[in-house]
Amino acid sequence: MTLFLVLVIAALVLGFIGVLIEGLFSLLIIGIAVFVAALVYLGLHMRRSGRRRPLR
């Protein structure tokens, strides 16, 4: 979960820098890509954690 939060914070920072500074539109795109990667990671993490519980 810590990795997810770090990825989201990095995506926000890159996005803000990309929006605020002219000519760095590519950072906004990278920030969006990092955010999508964080969502994919969270989805995979939630999916894996559900399988580990033993059935009774």
Number of strands: 0
Shape: rod-shaped
Count the helices. How many? 2
Largest sheet: none
Order of SSEs: HH
Q: What structural class is derived from the secondary structure elements? A: mainly alpha
- How much strand content do the residues show? under 5%
Low-confidence stretches: none
Task: Explain the layout of strands and helices.
Elements: H1 2-20, H2 25-51
Helix pairs in contact: 1-2
Written overview of the protein:
The chain is mostly helical. It has one domain (2-48). Helix content is 82%, strand content 0%. The protein contains two helices and no strands. Helix 1 packs antiparallel against helix 2. The longest helix has 27 residues, at 25-51. The model has no long low-confidence stretch (mean pLDDT 82).
Describe the structure using short key phrases.
56 residues, mainly alpha, 0% strand
Gist?
The chain is mainly α and 56 residues long. The chain has one domain (2-48). It has helices at residues 2-20, 25-51.
